[in-house]
């Protein structure tokens, strides 16, 4: 191997080491937990997929999510809005309802949409008067989502 090839390899290796060091500078956000939050750390999120045949899922969005949408995604759920209104209308959570059922072009029908709810830990559900993109849930509270005609989640707020 020639000296110039060795120097190029050494320079390449040095660049990789420096680049790897730069990538690790920012810590990863806290990971969602697949259970209700404890105490006042995080926001518990309940998603009721019962009408879609997938039961109820509860997860914790750690920290202090700035919006209901941030709590939903922070708890590990994926969200799809409508083509016309974006995330102003939540059309799918974790891919449900499927594209075969709902095209997500305009607002979903009043008989089949994701309704948005709030509750204190262990308290009663209240229908949200604000959009999930503008509501700021307090740590220790519970956010609820239920698919159907506007009924609250089928389980009590944890």
State the gist of this model:
The chain is of the alpha+beta class.
Biggest sheet strand order reads: 2-1-7-5-6
Helical percent range?
10-25%
Total count of helical runs of at least 4 residues: 2
Largest sheet features: 5 strands, mixed
Tell me the quaternary state.
single chain
Number of strands: 7
The succession of helices and strands, N to C, reads HEEHEEEEE
- Percent range for β-strand residues: 15-25%
Mean model confidence by pLDDT: 84
End-to-end distance: 67 Å
Alpha carbon gyration radius: 21 Å
Low-confidence stretches: 2-29
Q: State the secondary-structure class.
A: alpha+beta
Shape: globular
Keyphrases for this structure?
alpha+beta, 7 strands, single chain, two-stranded antiparallel ribbon, 18% helix, 158 residues
Notes on the protein architecture:
This protein is α+β, with helices and mostly antiparallel strands and 158 residues long. 18% of the residues lie in helices and 22% in strands. It has a five-stranded mixed beta sheet with strand order 2-1-7-5-6, covered by helices on one side. The protein has a two-stranded antiparallel ribbon with strand order 3-4. A hairpin with a 7-residue loop joins strand 1 and strand 2. The chain is globular, with a radius of gyration of 21 Å. Mean pLDDT is 84; it is low at 2-29.
């Amino acid at each position: 191997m020639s000296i110039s090839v060795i120097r190029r390899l050494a320079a390449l290796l040095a660049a990789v080491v420096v680049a790897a060091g730069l990538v690790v500078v920012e810590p990863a956000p806290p990971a969602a937990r697949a259970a209700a939050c404890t105490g006042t750390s995080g926001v518990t999120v309940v998603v009721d997929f019962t009408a879609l045949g997938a039961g109820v899922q509860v997860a914790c969005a750690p920290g202090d999510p700035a919006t209901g949408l941030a709590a939903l995604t922070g708890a590990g759920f994926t969200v799809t809005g409508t083509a016309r209104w974006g995330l102003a209308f939540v059309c799918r959570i974790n891919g449900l309802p499927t594209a075969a059922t709902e095209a997500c072009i305009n607002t979903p029908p009043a008989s089949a949409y994701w309704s948005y709810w709030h509750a204190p830990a262990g308290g009663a559900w209240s229908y949200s008067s604000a959009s999930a993109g503008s509501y700021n849930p307090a740590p220790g509270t519970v956010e609820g989502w239920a698919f159907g005609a506007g009924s609250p989640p089928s389980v009590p707020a944890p």
